[in-house]
Design a protein that fits this description.
alpha/beta; Rossmann fold; 3-stranded antiparallel beta sheet; 12 strands; metal ion binding
Length: about 475
Amino acid sequence: MKTINLISPTNDDSIKLAEVSKIIFKSKKSTVLTGAGISCNAGIPDFRSSDGLYNMVKAKHPKSVVRGQDLFDISLFRDEVSLSVFCTFMEALYVSTKEAKPTETHKFIKTLKEKNKLLRCYTQNIDGLERSCDLNMGIQEGHLVVKNENGVQVQQSSITSAGQFTKSWKELDVVQLHGNLHQLSCTHCLTSYAWTQEYQSLLSQGLNPECKSCHEKYLERLYSGKRMTGNIGLLRPSIVLYGENHPQAEYLARGLNHDLKSRPDLLLIMGTSLKVDGVKKLVRSLSTSIHSKGGKIIFVNKTPLSSSSWNGIIDYQVLSDCDEFVKSVKREIPDLFLTQEQLDSKKLLTPAKKAVNKSNTSDSAFTPPTTPTKVKVKSEIKSEQTIGMDLIYQIKKEAETYKRMNLSIPTPELTPASSFDEETFKPALRQVSKSQLNRKIKVKKESKEDVKDEKLLKRVSPTPTNEEIPMKKCKV
């Protein structure tokens, strides 16, 4: 059995935690066993810790209760004082569970269901917080208890068909092994009742309400003159006490066999010290089935187990608060906690990121690194070179035109330079100063073609102005 201490973790603990997270992520049929430890962060105390329910009861009623565990024993119905303390304590616990909110561990169980990984959750808790997470829990009464002709209650599970049983069992997400605090049941006829203000008020005073069903039967037999049989039952929370058989024991046994045949591949034990005999048997049965498939058993609790009695049964022991363990798993495998929409959007983004990374890798491997700025400069140089070549061609053409026109123009009479007619040559000449040409042409000396263009520009002289045209003497 490997131990992982998340209270003061080491590097080795981090490696083992990654292994556990991977096992949970790969599991397809997970079973979960929970105890009171998963509800402590919701404000509901556990049983056996220093500030748990047992010590709390003993501190409040030191004369009436010898041990806190005695308050949850079936023998308390023999003593009126113990029964009164039990009623008062159960009413206070019921009020606290109504105000409590689901913890991270409860939400984690819901996540396993949403990911189609949850086969079944078995809980020892009676607070019913799983119902707040929209988990199907409890067993419908129509599938459990019916009455025969004589009004005697019988187990429905013993007479229903296999198909009906399988359908009803598969509807369950959470199986309450120790009953449900949010229901009341009769100690005589087992009829279930919901909590009302009247019942809650009586229980807070340490009084057990009478069963209305039993009372009606009593009056019916009394008025008809029949012999009185039986007693009028009392209402109590529908929880299983020590020394008491579970009212749906046969149904639960069939359900457990159904889950074992489903071949689960993981058992998560969270928030329980595994002190109850029935729970120990459940863990050993599930362990045999899971290990036969190559699955793992993971135990999560603040207090460690006895390694001698659980070696070979439990594979990983995680010493941690249950909610902190869930948060650690969430950091290791965040995809498990994402909704389907979030996963779909992530899948769409992943190929795009890979394509960008691949293109960047290929470019850096075969070409020198470039930047958008450099590309822009090259394009500007190319455009400037094109403009320069156009100007050179235009200058050449104008120079040839000037030569031809210079030969064909008749020689004017000799006149002073001040009276020279500028309009004569204006249509044929285009004034382009050297400074204007230098500003427009910006040729980079990076290639041989650029050098040739620059030499060509030097050979081409600018168009002469009127003052620079030489005066020729004319023969008279």
